[in-house]
Amino acid sequence: MKKKAKSISLAQGCAILIIVYIVLSIGLYFIAGEQFKSKHSENSIESVEAVKPIGEILKDDTVEQTFYMDEDILSNFTLKLATYERQNTGAVLVELIDASDKRVLFSKTVDIATLADNSFITLRPESYISGLKGKTLCISVSSQTGTPGNAVTLWYNDTVQQADRYSQLTLNGEPISGSLCYSVEKRVKLLFGQYYFVIMGLIGILLFAYCARLIHCSKTGKKSLGLNVINAFSRYNFLLKQLVSRDFKTKYKRSVLGVLWSFLNPLLTMSIQYLVFSTLFKSDIPNFAVYLMVGIVFFSFFNEATNMGLMSIVGNASLITKVYIPKYIFPVSRVMSSSINLFISMVPLLLMAIITRAPITPALLILPFSIICTIVFCIGMAFILSSAMVYFRDMQFLWSVLSMLWMYATPIFYPESILPQSLMFLFKMNPMYHFIRFSRTIILDGISPEPQAYLFCLIAAIVPFLLGTAIFKKAQDRFVLNI
């Protein structure tokens, strides 16, 4: 006889939750690394327009560009090189030097055979260099192998003046008028990183206190919203699983390829849009295939989840009118069944990232955060749309138009840079903007987003969820009279 699985008590569940929270908090700090300790500075140096090459960098030649650090941290710098449209051999030495004491802060030998003509190369230290505020630094490029006809050059602009008295371009020690085509990413220290464990500790104490209150209410028989939610999902857990399974199977009923479409849909959509926007519109977004696919995967889930959630109450009218079932089960089950497709779609997305050599780092472990936030947001939207559909049947036609407008208002196939800065605050009110941007940072850059990105995702998920819950709770008592 098959033994019944032992259920977990409330106290055990709370203990597991607290342990998971502690592990995730510690893990997040080490995965996020410098992103929690500092952020991109508005004072970062942007490259000037390239006008002409400085000349072949031959053996024993040294090009130096000094600049002033008005921030404490430097994360990377770039240089624009040219190969004279030929295949060169050899190497150049790129160094970052503290001009005050000639101390080398960073050094890298660059194989010039791997360089593309007229391209920027990014030099990134293994860890951010800090303690630089108020110092003058020097980017030095030298060659020990360059010969005429077999050397690279650096682009510069001789029509601009240096940004300040600390900036100077020299060739073999001789000053040159103008500025090298280079950029420097400076970073500002964040208080969040300095007090991370204090903040997470306080949240942990609040979580512990709430768990203790739930256990106390359970023992004394007092009412609690948290207990009501836990008891409801525990009681209707089997029904929820059956509804999710039914919705997922119905989608692929009589389909030859079945679940395989969850792999093919994002790939085919990405291929078509990639062809249009990268070839016809000449998109210059780095790793555009992955950039595009992240947007497609997340927005396709949002579109599917909301469309299914829209019909969740009306589509189950026969069941709702005959037997008592918590009505919120139906929108939740529709979104959860759509989330299965989301998880399946993540497989071709990650495969595309590997094929295009996007950085595969531990930061990928943070990706579930944006996925969970997107799911919570979609549940809130499903509550709102399913309630509206009961009283206003034209909602299904109106939503098809609104969702299309929503898609074009989200940077899926175009870069954020083309958005007008004066209207940027409107675009940032779009929750999908934050979820997609968060995920792109992880997959394309291989790093954690900045702390404020986590906050924006939480707000974008929780506010619509609470609003949707309030609307659904108020409207559900009259569903039977209108469906």
Q: What tags apply to this protein structure?
A:
483 residues; 7-stranded antiparallel sheet; 3 domains; Jelly Rolls; 16 helices; alpha+beta; disordered N terminus; 6-stranded antiparallel sheet
Walk me through what this model shows.
This protein has 483 residues and is α+β, with helices and mostly antiparallel strands. Helix 7 crosses helix 8, helix 8 packs antiparallel against helix 14 and helix 11 runs parallel beside helix 15. The protein is built from 16 helices and 13 strands. The protein has 3 domains: 66 residues, no CATH class; 138 residues, Jelly Rolls (Sandwich), CATH 2.60.120; 247 residues, no CATH class. 51% of the residues lie in helices and 15% in strands. The strands form 2 sheets. Strands 1, 2, 4, 7, 9, 12 and 13 form a 7-stranded antiparallel beta sheet that branches.
Question: What is the element string, with H for helices and E for strands?
Answer: HHEEEEEEEEEEEEEHHHHHHHHHHHHHH
Would you tell me the overall average pLDDT?
A: 87
Rg over C-alpha atoms, rounded to the nearest angstrom: 28 Å
Helical content band? 40-55%
> Rough shape?
elongated
Strand segment count: 13
Class based on secondary structure composition and strand pairing: alpha+beta
CA(first)-CA(last) distance: 44 Å
Q: How many structural domains?
A: 3
Any low-confidence stretches, pLDDT <50, length ≥5? Answer: 1-5
Report the major sheet.
7 strands, antiparallel
Query: What fraction strand?
Result: 15-25%
Count of helices? 16
